[in-house]
Amino acid sequence: MSCLFCRIIDKEIPSKIIYENEQVLAFEDTNPQAPTHILVVPKKHISTSLEISGGDNELIGLMFQAANKIAKDRGVAERGFRLVMNCNQEAGQTVFHIHLHLLAGRRMSWPPG
Ligand code: 5GP
Ligand code: ZN
Hints:
Elements: H1 4-9, E1 17-20, E2 24-28, E3 36-42, H2 57-74, E4 81-84, H3 88-91, E5 100-104
Antiparallel strand pairs: 1-2, 2-3, 3-5, 4-5
The protein binds guanosine-5'-monophosphate and zinc ion (ZN).
């Protein structure tokens, strides 16, 4: 299996796991862009947001619920945090297994770079 995040999900590649349930895994990003930078991924392989189908509606909701729980547990929910999903090249997607970036712990600028 060549997908990096599928290999992390299967524990073939180590990661700093923050949260896990049957459908979702969350782990630290190895190149953090904020004091908190966690990736929330579905255990099901979906390559980009364009491949999300109606059958994935619950799964996508579970990703957001996991992100919210992590933000609350970390104490950053009230201050604020950013959830980002990049899609394809111009947006900067480099790993083709969908993931929410959970970024927090510093003031975020807008528009994003
Ligand atoms: P993208 O650019 O696709 O939106 O985000 C991919 C993210 O995965 C990047 O923030 C990058 O730092 C992170 N990343 C790449 N390789 C690894 C890895 O092997 N382990 C972990 N934990 N994160 C990774
Ligand atoms: Zn994958």
